[in-house]
Structure to design on (105 residues):
């Protein structure tokens, strides 16, 4: 993971979850965020496998029910500075916080 993501380059985003790709070995989410210039930015976010979330009482339906709603995510940004990163913390609209640390930190 450290070859792709910079664990020292942390980014916190608040935006709308628009897509979830629920599969092994990693989950992927797309979040639309308002950029500094006022335009919309699309961020691709990689997360742990579905089993990681299931152990924390979150399933695919929980994420599908969150599509179109606001989430907050702290991530380690990709080394190439693209709009992508690895989940560190995820806050769902319900207020539930999921920490992927230390696995992804």
């Amino acid at each position: 993971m450290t070859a792709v993501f910079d664990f020292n380059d942390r980014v916190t985003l608040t935006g709308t979850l628009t897509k979830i790709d629920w599969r092994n070995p990693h989950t992927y989410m797309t979040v639309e965020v308002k950029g500094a210039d006022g335009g919309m930015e699309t961020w691709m976010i990689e997360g742990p496998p579905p089993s990681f979330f299931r152990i924390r009482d979150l399933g695919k339906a929980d994420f599908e029910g969150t599509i179109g709603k606001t989430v907050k995510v702290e991530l380690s940004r990709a080394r190439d500075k693209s709009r992508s990163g690895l989940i560190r913390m995820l806050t769902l609209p319900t207020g539930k916080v999921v920490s992927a640390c230390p696995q992804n930190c």
Remarks:
- The chain has one domain: 5-99.
- DSSP finds two helices and six strands in the chain.
- The first helix runs from residue 50 to 55.
- The chain has a mean pLDDT of 92.
